[in-house]
Amino acid sequence: MRTYKLTAFEQTGKPIMDETFTAETDEEARDKGKVILEEKELTKQTHRLASPAGKLLLFHS
Length: 61
Fold this sequence. Notes:
It comes from Planococcus antarcticus DSM 14505. Helix content is 23%, strand content 44%. By secondary structure, it is an alpha+beta fold. It has a four-stranded antiparallel β-sheet, with helices on one face. The model has no long low-confidence stretch (mean pLDDT 96).
């Protein structure tokens, strides 16, 4: 399992969510990240999901 980091920000740049979770693959992590954002109603906020290697898997500004 690999550890991924999902962060969401206010327009000012202040972090409003900073969460880590594990997944087997980047695709699984992307799906989990989308679900977390939907559950917390943060899909329209600026957010990013980074892999352990630093690759951006989700990004919205």
